[in-house]
Amino acid sequence: MAQCQGTTRKGDRCKRDAREGSAFCAIHQDQEIRARSEPTDSGEWDRDAIVKAAIGFALVGVILFWGLRR
Ligand SMILES: [Zn+2]
Q: Which of 25, 28, 45, 66 would bridge 16 by S-S if both were Cys, CB 3.0 to 4.6 A apart?
């Protein structure tokens, strides 16, 4: 059994044994979920939102450009 990778509320390394197939104990499972999901999820959402915003601005720009020229 490996040692839990979680940190206590005091900021110390948890001294419990990690659960089987996990790097965290039952108490620090939420830290594992946060460590796994937050960086990739928010990164993908941000990239997606930026691409959609860029396409939207480009379309509005093209429409305004042609509208002003005529
Ligand atoms: Zn722990």
A: 25
25 exposure class (CB count in 10 Å sphere: 0-12, 13-18, 19+): buried
Q: Distance of alpha carbon 54 from its chain centroid, rounded?
A: 21
Q: How far is the CA of 15 from the centre of ligand 1 (A)?
A: 7
- Radius of gyration in angstroms for the set of CA atoms belonging to the chain, rounded to a whole number: 23
Please state, in angstroms and rounded to a whole number, the distance separating the CA atoms of residues 8 and 4.
Answer: 10
Specify the pLDDT at position 55.
96
Separation of CA 22 and ligand 1 centre (Å):
11
Predicted structure pTM score: 0.46
For residue 29, give every residue at least 6 positions away whose Cβ sits within 8 Å of its Cβ, in sequence order, or none.
Answer: 19, 22
Q: How far is the CA of 61 from the centre of ligand 1 (A)?
A: 53
